[in-house]
Structure formats: structure tokens, C-alpha cells
Amino acid sequence: MFRATVIRNTTRNIRAYSTDSTNLLKTPLYDLHVELNATMVPFAGYSMPVLYKGQSHIESHRWTRTNVGLFDVSHMLQHKLSGAGSTEFLQTLCPTDFTKLAPYQSTLSVLLNKDGGVVDDTMITKHGDESYYIVTNAGCRANDIKFIKESLGEFKDGEHDIQHNTFEGSLLAIQGPKAQEVVSKFTNDNLGSLYFGNSRYIGLEGFGSSEKFHIARGGYTGEDGFEISIPDDKVALDFTKALLEQELVKPIGLAARDSLRLEAGMCLYGHELNEQITPIEASLNWLVSKSRRTPEAATFNGASKILSQLADPKSVGFKRVGIKSKGPSPREQNKIFDINEPTKQIGTVCSGSPSPSAGGNVGQAFINKPYNKTGTKILVEIRGKLREAEVAKMPLVQPSYYRG
């Protein structure tokens, strides 16, 4: 039987992630979005651009896949964690082996609760043996801070002096195959030697600041690109305007960001991830470093459950998979049924969107075994009708990361 608890809990998280319009926060670039005639919507407690005047969702999506899309992701929460014991502490929260990362190497990871559920997904960059730069989701902001603070309280003793701080500022995602060409115009740094999953500090020329800013090669679209953290609001605004003066660059909102990440097979917290879902159920086995899969090395939260799921895949009754379809697009919470037994529910849709790159629609879903095998035909209930879809291998569009 399909786990209805997963559906209910996912629904609660979606409602928590998409907030109403009262008391919304604004990023440092809010006024610029308004000036650019963006349609602003509530998202994760912020007023965020979903589309810009003169661009359709499909045009925005395709522009990012062929040129450069500029995304304001300043709503994400930025952290610094440092001091003796930081690595050991992080390894109680995450299944990643941070001792294997080189300085200024980044990795996707997850914060885990005591049952192995995902508190949040996060990008973590190792700056030194006991120094980390962390980015977490805006919609999980209050819960993440509380979780980390309480976890530090449980972890600390006389041998550790860990400092955890969050900070605000602009965070820009510059995504697309021509991102390096564009960003290179504003720095003397050789970006050709900065590969996917790595970061450094660079200067930005022509903005009256000698400060260097953290730049990471990667992003949320499956394309080549960078994420640049700029705490100085004036530099951030001036740099954003200068980028938008480039013929190759257009501002892109949340609508295309969602379809781009779906094609790339990436999760959105509150849809594909929540505190009842383990990384294994979310098809993120690779986040559990191989060096941490023994009882001695598995010091992370929920280790016994996660290791048992890895050891016995048959114990995991459902998995996150990709889906493709034609016609009306699947949306979150649409029920999925066995094509040979249309009254038998076998899963639920987590996210769905039209796919400008692949054609038709793409989505992600939790589907029971054995119906989650690639190529399996399924039925999705959309607007009261059962419509045919197919389980598809992720990523649904081949990524274009820069690996040198």
C-alpha cells in the first residue's frame, strides 16, 4: 500500500514553503525587480520575481539553456561555520565525509534529523580543515537555525569552540552556457581554471570595491554557471545592472528556475524532500559517502536506518523517480495509478512542469516498487481524468557542467 503519510506530510511542507503575502521580506535587489516589471509573488517568506514583462516562461527557460540567465537567489540563507570541531560536528548532521573535500571544494548534502529524515538540503563549501561556507533554503530558515543551534548545544564540550553565524546579502546565480564569457568581463581572475564544484574569492572590477567575493561554479539549472555572494548591497546592485546591460544576459524568475531544475533532476525542499523522507527514499544514495557506510564511521543522525536501507534495498518501498508525459502537466499531489489496475494508487507526484527543452512535460514523483522502473507506463490523475505518463531516468535533460 502506498504510504499516505508521505503525501500528507509533503502537503504540509508545500504550504509552509509557499507563504502568503503578509509581512514578506525583500532581497537587496527587490526595487530593481520592480523596475524591471517583474511579477512578484510570495515565496519562502520573500517577495520574489516569477516572470519579467516581455518574457514568457518558455522564453526565459530557453534563454538560460542557450545564453545566460540571471537569478536573484538572495533569499537563500548563508552561513559560516568555523572553529575546532566543526568538521566532526557537521558529520553528525550530514552523511558526507567532509575530510575528503579539498579546500574550496563544494558538495551538495542534507541535514538529517534523528530518524534520518531530511531537515533541509544544503550546499556546503569547505574553506579549510575547520571552516565552512553553507547555503540553505529560505523556506527552512527558522527551522534550520533552530536545528543547528540545538544540535550544537548537544555536541559542544570543553574540547570544541565552534562558531556558527548566518549573514544576509545578495546571492546571484548566473546560469547558462555563456556564463563564463559574461562574468570574465568583470574580473581579472581566470575563471577557466575554476571547475564545477569548486569555489574561490575573486575581485569585481569597476565597482569601487577592493573586497573579494565568494564565487562557486555550479547552480540549480543543470547548466554551467556561477553563484556569487556579494554582502555589499551597492556593489551587488551595480554589478547586477552591469550584467543586465550585456546582450547575452536576461533576468529570470522562479517559473523557469523550477522547470530548469526539474529537467536537471534536482529536488525542491517541501516537494521531493521533507523530514519523513530519507536520502535513500529520495534516490540520493550518493550523498552518503562510501567512507561513512560502516557502523564505526556512520556518526550522522539516523545512521542505523539509512545504513539498513542501503544494505537492503528491498526494504525501501518507494523511490523518487522522474516522469514524462504529454497533455496537461502533472502537478504536486496528483495521484499515480497502475496502468493495468487503474483503481490501485502506486504513488504521488512531487513536482511537475512543461518542459521547454525536452518537449511535453517533466516531473518527479514518489512511486512504489516495482512500478518505479524506467520505462514503466503509469496513469496520473489530472483534473479528474487519468492520463498516461512514463517513468523516466533522471536527469531528464543532460547537464552541461564545466569540468575542464
From TrEMBL:
Domain spans labelled Aminomethyltransferase C-terminal: 319-397
BP terms from Gene Ontology: glycine catabolic process
Compartment(s) of residence: Mitochondrion
Superkingdom of origin organism: Eukaryota
GO cellular component: glycine cleavage complex; mitochondrion
Function recorded in the entry: The glycine cleavage system catalyzes the degradation of glycine.
Catalytic activity: N(6)-[(R)-S(8)-aminomethyldihydrolipoyl]-L-lysyl-[protein] + (6S)-5,6,7,8-tetrahydrofolate = N(6)-[(R)-dihydrolipoyl]-L-lysyl-[protein] + (6R)-5,10-methylene-5,6,7,8-tetrahydrofolate + NH4(+)
Family: Belongs to the GcvT family.
InterPro entries: GcvT, GcvT/YgfZ/DmdA, GcvT/YgfZ_C, GcvT_C, GCVT_N, TrmE/GcvT-like
Subunit structure comment from the entry: The glycine cleavage system is composed of four proteins: P, T, L and H.
Single annotated GO MF: aminomethyltransferase activity
Organism annotation: Ambrosiozyma monospora (Yeast)
Keywords: Aminotransferase, Mitochondrion, Transferase, Transit peptide
UniProt domain GCVT N-terminal: residue ranges: 29-290
Main location: mitochondrion
Membrane is among the record's keywords: no
EC number: 2.1.2.10
Residue positions binding substrate: 227
Cited Pfam families: GCV_T, GCV_T_C
Protein name, as recorded: Aminomethyltransferase
